[in-house]
Amino acid sequence: MQIKILMLVCIIMTGMSLKVVLAAEHEETPPTDAADTTKTRDEQSRQILIETARLEMELAKNLMKKKQIELENLQAMIEEENNIVTVSEVNKAEEEYESAASEYEKSKLNLQKVELDSLKDAWHITVESTRLYESRDGREMFSITLQNSSLPVKLVESSKVMGRDITISAQIDDIFVSIKEKAGFGSDGAIIAEPYERRIETLKENETVTLEFELIKEDVRDVVVHLNYLDTPDERHIHLKQVDPYISVVSARRYKEGDRRRLELVIKYGAVEEEEAKNTKVNTAQEINNVYVSIKDETDAIIGSPYEFRIPTLKDGQEKTLDFELRRNVDSLTVNLRYLDKEYLYKIHLEEDTRHISILSAKKFRVDNQMMVTIQLKNTSTTEAMPINATPEEIAAANEIRAIYVSLLDAVDSTNIVKPYEEKIAVLGYNETVNLTFQLQKDVDSLKVSMKYPELPEPDTRLIYLQKESALDVVNVSSLRFSQEGNLGSSVTYDITLDRLAETENTFQLRVINLLNRLSFEFQDPDTQSRQSQVKFTQEQSKRNLSLIVYLPEELDASYLDSTLEFYVAVLDETEANELGGTNNRLDLPAERIASIQGGVERFELIPKGVPEIEVSVQNAFQTIKIDEQVNMTAKLKNIGTRDLVDIRMLVDVNPDWKYTVSPEVIASLGRNEETEIQLTLNPPADITVGEYQAKLSAEVTVDNRKFPARDRSITVLVESKSQMSVTTLLFGALILLMIGIVIVTIRISRR
Prior knowledge:
Elements: H1 2-27, H2 41-78, H3 87-117, E1 125-134, E2 140-148, E3 153-154, H4 156-162, E4 167-168, E5 172-181, E6 193-194, E7 198-203, E8 208-215, E9 222-229, E10 232-239, E11 247-257, E12 260-269, H5 275-278, E13 287-296, E14 304-305, E15 309-315, E16 319-326, E17 332-339, E18 342-349, E19 351-352, E20 357-367, E21 370-379, H6 392-399, E22 401-410, E23 418-419, E24 423-428, E25 433-440, E26 446-452, E27 460-465, E28 467-468, E29 475-478, E30 483-487, E31 491-500, E32 506-513, E33 520-524, E34 531-532, E35 534-537, E36 543-551, E37 565-572, H7 574-580, E38 586-587, H8 591-595, E39 600-609, E40 614-618, E41 622-626, E42 631-639, E43 645-653, E44 659-663, E45 666-670, E46 675-683, E47 691-703, E48 706-709, E49 713-720, H9 727-751
Parallel strand pairs: 11-19, 20-28, 30-39, 32-38, 41-49
Antiparallel strand pairs: 1-2, 2-8, 3-4, 5-7, 5-9, 6-8, 9-10, 11-12, 12-16, 13-15, 13-17, 14-16, 17-18, 20-21, 21-25, 22-24, 22-26, 23-25, 26-27, 29-31, 31-36, 32-35, 32-37, 33-34, 33-36, 37-39, 40-42, 42-46, 43-45, 43-47, 44-46, 47-48, 47-49
């Protein structure tokens, strides 16, 4: 007992000595330099919170160490032979130590949280710019550009505790942005823009994002941008400034066309931006109507022709190229822009472009049913920069262009639509011309000519209209559905496209060649449904669409059925039409004469098809039998269609317990208008009762994988009992008795 008391005293003394040592260590901490104590109120408050959390962590740490020493001493004492320590005391010490250790870990985490919360102001979102503009459809829009101007934050105290650097990223997640009305302007704090709230999932360090809102309240110039991030609301008061429309002059180039001086002027709605600014441009989608452009000299006299260009509409970001003829040779001029009731003057110094290729002509024509195009190019480079005494050889050498690559592109999607895809002109001398011929892979009326040579930074692309040219004034005839099938008694419609390669006005006759006389036809305008016997082409309308409708008769010789009938459609000028003759737009010509026709000719095919149709007839559709009797009857099957039929199958529909036989069940063949008899036997069941029963007789034939049924014929069967006398028998008996009575009465009267 005395030993146990001595050991407890030792434990208590050890704990007290540990407290003294820890207190001494705490007192030996060097004082903070007075120079570092000058802090702001917020910094001092932040430091107090961190010191409080750190002190709580130190106390928790000391308590944990104390509980650890107590546990170790008790564990050592319980191992002795004469110990005074129980197992429950050791277990309790273990629980106290584990609790102290847990509190210590929590205090470390709390220190990090306190330090992190105290640094919330380190994360900041900057409003870089705002813009008020109008959309294409007239809505008032507002755009705002935000930037994450935060920097990574190092947790100093937490890094000391953890023994490693703890740095928090500057990235901000889940940022919510809404636009509200400024206080004192109607409904304070109400959201006045759609969408009502925008969410930015992630905004990294120095990253910017532009958001667009539609202002749903009119005449707003002061707004509150409400930001909510890191569980902290943040509001910025913004005054909106309307962006005024602005048209800039992109370029002005003087050039020569023949002996005339011309000016090519390019203007753009919006400022001409540098390459770096293009990536951050916000499309305002505005447009300006009625922009007037004129060219003046230093005396304010108009020297450009036309005197004034009117642009009905110029949309935001759109460029417009204008071409003037200069009435005076000047080195500088003034571009006068007038829009929105204001005038804007731009003083321009002209720099001549001494390299230029003119497109003199572009003609489309046909060779052996293949569409071709030929373009003529000319080197029209200017020579005004040459000395006055320059020789023609010097002028030609100074203005020749080498290594010219020419290609023709689709006007819509700029794909190459010719063969060869590209032609190279090795040298094009001054005032020289060259003709290039391409094969068109796509029939178009206009295309882009792309020219590239060393003096150009980018290919020179021009949209041109193709002039139609043909050695003979011929209309090309084509049809996508030139071969069709048609049933007798119906009509067949062929689509026809007429294309004329000429710019003059002319009228052409329509003719059908070698169409079977039994078949009639007519040409129709698909839009107006009016009948046509001739077509007229103008300079504006060089293509026409027609429909050829061929009518098949109800009856046609069997030799023509399922055979290909070949005929032709010709479009002829008046001279050739009169020469060939014909009646009712119909001609019959041999093959060699068709081949010699100068006009447009297209071959067509028609395959007449007979209509399969069958009919079943029953002479007596009401049958009377007695029980244990059967129905025997004759029906007729007739081919009333316009083609011969094979493998016609008879169909009988009776009650499930009835049996039937039909002969023949399959008719091998049946010609047009041919008829055959069908024997039908119906066997009722033995236990049938008296009454009326229904049956149906039909037929079906399959032609070209399609089934054609005949109309059902209903048969009524009246079943009577064996002993039952028929109504006819009773009437006949009554009639005999009546006649006998009359005879007897007559004899008696005569005797009297």
